[in-house]
Amino acid sequence: MEWTRYRFHSRWALSAPPAAVYAALERPEEYPRWWRHVREVTRLDDTTGVVRVRSLLPYDLTFTVREVRRDPAAGILEVALSGDVDGWARWTVTAAGPGSLARYDQAVDVHKPLLRRLAVPARPAFRANHRLMMRAGRRGLRAYLEAV
Asked: What digits encode the pLDDT tens for the residues 32-49?
């Protein structure tokens, strides 16, 4: 097992229609408004930006995000990640009953030196930290979509 590699999967059931969910997710510069752990998003151009996140554990992750696929008809947003983490992340938004299902998939290799050193003993804490971050994101997006 490569201890610095992670795969994450989350599913967010949302009451908003798929088009509204997709519209919110395709604007990462607005994530800090509704996702408290996304501390900063700086657009570099139309398809690239720098993101800084921090959840419960006392460390920031900063990485460049580059759009790989934007397909509103299929409900897919996919990006390549480089920096403190390298890999990819993908949102897939589909209809689910009267609302939507936003599925998040991510595969990354961690490069931040501290996290690499703590990869074995802290792996359960890192995974729990990610779950907490995703739970807060789901709650934040729900509230954001209800207010719009």
From this structure: 999 999 999 999 999 999
d(CA 40, CA 38): 6
Write down the pTM of the prediction: 0.94
CB 133 within 8 A of CB 6: no
Distances (CA, A) of 130 to 50, 61, 103, 136: 19, 12, 15, 10
> The domain that contains 13 carries what CATH number?
3.30.530.20
Task: Indicate the number of domains in the chain.
Answer: 1
How far, in Å, CA of 139 to CA of 148, rounded? 15
User: In which domain, by residue range, is 118 found?
Assistant: 5-147
pLDDT in tens, 3-28: 999 999 999 999 999 999 999 999 99
